[in-house]
Amino acid sequence: MIEVLAISTDGIDCGISAYLDLLRTHLPSDLILRCDPDWLDPRAFFAQLRQIQEYQGPQVVWLNYHAALHSRWSVGQIERLRQHLPVVVTYHDTGVPVPEQCRNIYHATVSPVHDQLAQQGRFIVHEPCPELGEAIYLRQGIPLYSAPYQFHPLNFPPERPVLGTVGFPFPWKNYDLLAEASALAGWSLLLLAPRATAVQMETWRALNPNLVVRSEFVPQAEVVSYLAACDATAFLYTCANTGTSGAIRQGIAARKPVFATEGCRQFRDLEDAYEGRYAIRWLNDLTPHGVANALGHLPLGRLDPRIVRLAERDSWANQARQYGICFKRAAGVATP
To answer: Is 299 exposed, middle or buried (0-12, 13-18, 19+ CB in 10 A)?
Structure first.
């Protein structure tokens, strides 16, 4: 049994913690994942190192790396870590061009340092980064499907189709646009918007009275069930943020038609890949009338076969299988 020592947030409402939990759920049975959030401070990890290494079996350290959360894990700390244990890093904050911090962590992870263990590092990214020649490209995984209304019903009028989305309601996610456009198209709107304020909800309801908002953090299985009860989902971001979007994966998991902004930095991995370019309905007219027009031309059905194909291709079961190979190779365990 290989022990994977995860340096990550855990059990809190954040994307990095959710990613950890999904990997832990889907890892092959011959790997066990152990996480202590205190290890985000390298001093805490090294203080426990002797006790950690008492485990009777192969071990790998996995940094579920977010630039802000792991700011204390410097190049020097990672090089020190590799003198004791093999290391795998998943770097979530890639960009174009690749940020200097990413390049530095990459070289600290994959470059030889002192001994053979230093050769065993692995570096995982969610989008193509050709300048990181040894990096492994692995898109974010798609969660499991949850049937519509598996958890709670939605009180929408039956005569209107429903558009849904999920994510913290930052301005660049354009929830005002979704509310106005869905109303123009004659659609109801579901916003799963954790931490939405009363003022925001009042604004959206004024734009589309046929609205349901959940402002608390909803567990992922429930999110997918809610979105699967919609007729389509939309992620109309306008931003140049680093990294790739985890929220859109929940829309893909619902297996209904997915609209997304063409050319948005956070969707680059999907737009550039054949599977995503073919499956997602990419919009470049983000006016209310442009979005409403796209909704008006959408053929409605039980499932979208193209999204189903993408959901299967990028399923967490498949992604976790690839992680298992990376962890085993890093630990020096033979893989098929």
So the answer is: exposed
Q: How many CB atoms are located within 10 Å of the residue 136 CB? A: 15
SS (H, E, C) 110-129: HCCCCCHHHHHCEEEECCCC
Tell whether 131 and 170 lie within a shared domain.
Answer: no
Q: What is the CATH number of the domain that holds 285?
A: 3.40.50.2000
Packed helices 15-26 and 316-330: angle between N→C axes, nearest 10 degrees: 80
> CB within 8 A of 22, min separation 6: which ones?
141, 143, 220, 316, 320
Tokens describing residue 333: 């365990």
171-226 confidence digits (pLDDT tens): 999 999 999 999 999 999 999 999 999 999 999 999 999 999 999 988 889 999 99
Domain range spanning residue 325? 2-140+316-330
* Total tally of structural domains belonging to the chain: 2
- pTM of the entire structure? 0.89
Note the pLDDT tens digit of each residue in 61-84: 999 999 899 999 999 999 999 999
> 69-106 in b/e burial notation, b at 16+ Cβ within 10 A?
bbeebeeebbbebbeebbbbbbbbbbbeebeebbeebb
Q: Are residues 78 and 193 in the same domain?
A: no
Q: CA-CA distance, 228 to 180, in Å (whole number)?
A: 22
Amino acid in position 322:
Q
C-alpha 141/C-alpha 311 separation (Å) is 8
What's the CA gap between 101 and 319, in Å, rounded? 25
